[in-house]
Amino acid sequence: MSLDIDEKRKEVKNGKEYIKPTNVNIKRHDQVNKKKTATEKNDVDMKRHDQVNKKETATAKNDVDMKRHDQENKKETATAKNDVDMKRHDQVNKKETATEKKEVVKKSQGEVENGENANETEIDETMAAHTGDAFIAGWVGGAASVLVSHPLDTVKVRLQTNTAYKGAMDCAIKTFTKEGVRGFYKGMSFPLASAAAYNALVFGIYSNTTKLLCYVRYGDSGEVPRCSDIFIAAMAAG
């Protein structure tokens, strides 16, 4: 029976034998087409799914990259801010240090000036205190020199003006015998006053000039004067 059916299906067309399509073959063909269509559809869906996944992956990757970029930007911003803060802090510290340094310099200058003023005041007071001593010493020295030398001067003058004396000893003895000690000091008031005043000026000017020269040249009025200082002071006193 099956052989008859197969024989009926077969036909010859243009010298070639082919099998007529039957309902069964059409169904099979439709099923195959459906399977192919389903497969192709599945392939398309898979491709679409893959594309969607790729897009989602790319989107997620972009999001991650954006987050990383934002984090890096935040870090850079924070670093830049820290750098700015550090620079400001350094500038403030420099200003404070400069201000403190200026204050220290001012204080030191003030202390130096105060010290110099104090030293100058002390020196001025010391020099002022000892200025009159030299004049007093010169006056006393001049008066003493007159008291010692005037009796000898009296004997000398009498020997020069009177030939009755045999010598200086004879003149001194006769003067003491006749006039006593007062005879040797006759006419002493004027030499005493003049010699005392002269020596007071010489001593005072010389002493204070040497002190002034030592203070100006060496910074200490108590310094030992050099020969040049003594020469200048002697010229001033003379």
Automatic annotation (TrEMBL):
Residues 1-120 are annotated as: Disordered. InterPro entries: MCP_dom_sf, MCP_transmembrane, Mitochondrial_Carrier. It is found in: Mitochondrion membrane. Residues 1-19, 27-110 have a biased composition (Basic and acidic residues). Its main location: mitochondrion. It comes from the Eukaryota. It is a multi-pass membrane protein. GO terms for molecular function: transmembrane transporter activity. Solcar repeats lie at residues 129-212. GO terms for cellular component: mitochondrial membrane. Keywords: Membrane, Mitochondrion, Repeat, Transmembrane, Transmembrane helix, Transport. Belongs to the mitochondrial carrier (TC 2.A.29) family. This is Mitochondrial carrier protein.
